[in-house]
Amino acid sequence: MAAPTELEVGRAIGAPVERKEDRKLLTGQAQWVDNIRLPGMVYMAVVRSPYAHARIASVDVAPALAHADVVAAYSGADLLDEWEGGLPCAWLPTEDTNAPVHRPLAVDKARHAGDGVAVVVAKTRAAAEDAAELVRVEYEPLPAIVDPEAALTEDAPLVHDELGTNRCYTWNLDAGEVDRLFAEAAVTVKERYRQNRLIPTAIEPRAVVVQPLPATGEFTMWSTTQVPHIARVTLSGVTGIPEAKLRVIAPDVGGGFGSKLNVYAEEALALALARRLGRPLKWTETRSEGYLSTIHGRDLWQEIELAATAEGKITAVRARLVAAMGAYLQLVTPGIPLLGAWLYAGAYDVQGYSFECVGVFTHTTPTDAYRGAGRPEATYAIERAVDALARKLDVDPVELRRRNFIREFPNEIASGLTIDSGDYDASLNAALETAGYAELRAEQSARRERDDPKQLGIGLSTYVEMCGLAPSRILGAIRYGAGGWDTATIRCLPTGTVQVLTGTSPHGQGHETTWAQIVADRLGYELDEIEVLHGDTAVVPLGMDTYGSRSLAVGGVALYHAAERILEKSKKIAAHRLKVPEDQIEYADGTFKGPEESVTLKDVALSAWTAHDLPDGMEPGLEATYVYDPPNFSWPAGAHVAVVEVDTETGAVDLQRYIAIDDVGTVINPTIVDGQVHGGIAQGIAQALLEEAVYDEDGNLLTSNMVTYVVPTAAELPHYELGRTETPSPTNPLGVKGVGETGAIASPAAVMNAVVDALSPYGIGDIEMPAKPERVWRAIEEAKR
Length: 785
Ligand code: MCN
Prior knowledge:
Blueprint: H1 22-26, E1 42-48, E2 54-60, H2 62-65, E3 70-75, E4 109-110, E5 116-122, H3 125-132, E6 136-141, E7 167-175, H4 178-184, E8 187-195, E9 207-213, E10 218-223, H5 228-239, E11 246-249, H6 265-277, E12 281-284, H7 287-293, E13 300-308, E14 314-326, E15 352-361, H8 375-393, H9 397-404, E16 411-412, E17 418-419, H10 424-435, H11 437-449, E18 454-464, H12 472-477, E19 486-492, E20 498-502, H13 511-523, E21 530-533, H14 551-578, E22 586-588, E23 591-593, E24 598-600, H15 601-610, E25 623-628, E26 637-647, E27 653-663, H16 670-689, E28 720-724, H17 742-759, H18 773-784
The site of pterin cytosine dinucleotide (MCN) has 37 residues, from helix 13, helix 14 and helix 16.
């Protein structure tokens, strides 16, 4: 089938309809994993190492087994024959990536605080947790290393002795004559930034329930996962349960932000123990347990250098990262910093590009995808460095950006990928106008002149990002272990309603609404006549799930194509029924019109079901599936402006205004898109100003609960001033680009550029994130001295 080139503008796409999924969420009818209760169900608790690094001398589960309600208890060694392989890492970026075996329970050594060393299964959750405390583990504590750069030094304690190094991999990308361009540059800047480690905090903690059916060898697993399909494939590999006997269900999932794009030890343990015991089993993490055992985000050092002409035309970019993997490789740990590898020149037209990333093991919770994954880091580095260059050249940061924007599309950027479309001036201009940029600068000058203790800072972030994670062949070329396609099935039922089966797995993004909008638009059904089914491998066996802001640009476009297939077949049936040639039929909004009569798509669906009078040789039923593998990534872009007031006497940063103009191509649902932008910005602001996972030098997580790890509430956040420009993507028929991560990608740079801008009269060029009052105050005091 030829891909349709133009989308007929229908009634549903672009409409700010309310989310279909909210009624059940707001009325307490959502199905959370922890609410599942099955007859005979037992509960699992994990015994976790209090040490970041320790030899496990012995594990004695006997005292736990003596507890009246305990059903079973095992050490890591007791369960070794449950595993066909270690927990999966699906992205080993180089041939020689060090990928130590990661068992669901540690056997010889604990490698981070919270590493699981034993499990207890009991009749109640309380009994399981009580008995877990009875397990006697003899540890021999060893020195730990928590900083990734320090972990590369010669005498650093090793996380995995057998590797003889803490280096996991070194990955390079070199393009253009970088060294020559640096040698010839009139001006260069060299900056070093820290990406603070973050702890994803979804509203719903992780949980898993497994129901075994010993008679058939089948297992059903309910998990708070973003990736039921990937979990099924990989957990089948870990446990040896045949993939076809394993059903994974992600029911309602209360947020993930990347942290549930993973396959966790507890899922493997729950399957293995349900198999051993022949009983249904549940595990739900506590918040502080989650902070130790669910993946963390970021944690890297960045060095970025820009080469430029005297006029401020950037010619080359050199970036080098040292990125913490944590103690083990989780599902995509090593690949996360590389998702930014192509973006360290941002929205700017440069000739030379070089990037290197060294992945490093440390005695900390493994890192992995957290909203933006690699792209907030890249955006931060280039956007902060552009401001540094502007200061050095004494040019306004707006002007410097304008001198360097990419303006021709499609554009093969220096790092080698092709940006399909964009209009960076349009979003910058809109952002400046909304902000009242000239007035803000005037106000800033006035405050500087009168030496106001409260200084104003204005920060920009003119980002471009790549999301939609596909095409499969590029993912293969960068050694990612899965495809980038997704599937959609549309099933027109005989009674006038529609089932949509999607391979995406929403956990807060509103696919039930926006997918219904796409179908309503193409097939003319009402939104409430369309049911979107997802997140159950028995209902939708094939899919690639939800992460990397891929769902609309991949799964949504698959759905569009499936709708075209429905129309193709329906038109044949309509022509047959109206007894006219197909080319005399016109289709609009759910109705096929012939020269005299017409027939609705719903009528056609009924005819297809009865199959009493179909064209010769046609299959009964009206159902179509499309598996879509996009030809390119999706390239959202935009301009964000942050306005801060910094109290130079206390170091307090007050984020007064936040303006975001985003270009995500065609918008399916503006309300949902605004919501996505809101959430992303909140997380980026949190990275800039509040959140930081802190380890002491022995590897104890000091921020292991929500009192010490500060997640923002609405009270800490400003009102957002949002706007959009729209440059449709030419690579998909809907013209859409992803939006799920844009806010988190753009905002840390905007906020920190604003903080540094406020302090630039002191000669301050950097403050480490989060810019907490003490840090800001110390920087000011030091600068004064
Ligand atoms: N959308 C739209 N028009 C566009 C782009 C998107 O109407 N031009 C709609 C989509 O139809 C979809 C939503 O916006 O309903 C997000 O779409 P998309 O950008 O494709 O992102 P995904 O659905 O793939 O979601 C993943 C993304 C990521 S990577 C993280 S992290 C994140 C995010 O979504 N985690 C979230 N948003 C989250 N929102 C909630 N509530 N919870 C999370 O855990």
